[in-house]
Design goal:
Elements: H1 3-11, E1 22-24, E2 57-61, H2 96-108, E3 132-136, E4 140-145, E5 150-155, E6 172-178, E7 181-187, E8 207-216, E9 219-227, E10 236-237, E11 241-245, E12 249-251, H3 262-266
Parallel strand pairs: 5-6
Antiparallel strand pairs: 1-12, 2-3, 2-11, 3-4, 4-5, 6-7, 7-8, 8-9, 9-10, 9-11
Length: 268
């Protein structure tokens, strides 16, 4: 399967109905400004009264600042997708059966769940050029995804994982702070999602640990530890994925029609 086809598959759903995806030019009073009134994206990251970093904002993956972005964009000039990489650049440590399944999917040109308006998931959602909003409350952090209007709930109220987790696309997520890093542990996944924009598999044993950092107003970074003993021979970390703030903008409605553009885009 060629890289161009891989990227096309990853972008099929992104091209459905993005249009002018954000509500533009609404000044955010919480963003620091330069003397000419423009957002100061290099200013120190905002903090809550208790000193914790505030990750709130509308964010989009930044392929220019992330290792693993192929130099192939969408036909309308949008950012390219990002390919998932291991932190040290080594191949995915797939077990033999999982590697055979991955190769089978690649060779068959299997289309991802997103081509049917089903979710991108962890870590796939961080690789495609679509907006994500983080919203903090004292006991809950919401991760809102403009594409398909999906969401994740990250609980910070001290709860443990349920004893009986029903397999879900985004799993069950618990958050905590470690210094300036917001750490999210997630378990209870189904097996239908992809880890990459290519059909990288995982099992229901998958557990992820995401570490979010905001070094300044305009930058958000995450790296993810992948732990899945049924798919991989060891735990491994992704490359650091960087997001850029989309200032003075917000979401509008996004509709996917399940999915009428696949045949036109891929010829299938």
């Amino acid at each position: 399967m060629t890289l161009r086809l891989v990227v096309t598959v990853g972008l099929v759903a992104v091209a459905v109905e993005t249009g002018s995806a954000q509500w533009i030019n609404y000044p955010d009073p919480g963003i620091p400004r330069t003397a000419d009134g423009k957002p100061n994206l290099t200013a120190p990251a905002p903090r809550f009264p208790d000193g914790r970093i505030d990750l709130s904002g509308v964010w989009q993956p930044d392929p220019k600042a992330t290792v693993g972005a192929p130099p192939v964009g969408q036909t309308l000039g949008e950012d390219p997708v990002i390919r998932l990489r291991t932190a040290d650049g080594s191949p995915y440590p797939l077990l033999p059966a999982a590697e055979a399944e991955y190769k089978r999917r690649l060779e068959s040109g299997e289309l991802g769940p997103a081509t049917q308006c089903l979710p991108h998931t962890i870590t796939d959602y961080y690789l495609v050029p679509t907006a994500m909003k983080l919203v903090h409350t004292p006991r809950l952090t919401l991760m809102l995804f403009e594409e398909y209007q999906h969401f994740r709930q990250v609980f910070t109220d001290g709860r443990a994982f349920p004893a009986d987790m029903q397999p879900a696309w985004f799993g069950y997520s618990i958050g905590r702070w470690e210094g300036d890093a917001f750490v999210i542990e997630t378990a209870g996944f189904n097996t239908r999602g992809w880890l990459d924009v290519t059909p990288l598999p995982h099992s229901e044993k998958l557990r992820t640990t995401e570490r979010f950092r905001r070094p300044n107003v305009g930058t958000l970074q995450v790296d993810v530890m992948i732990d899945d003993t049924a798919t991989f021979s060891r735990r491994w970390n992704t490359q650091t994925i960087t997001f850029k703030l989309l200032p003075d903008t917000d979401f509008i409605e996004y509709i996917c029609e399940n999915e009428k553009d696949v045949k036109a885009i891929t010829g299938r």
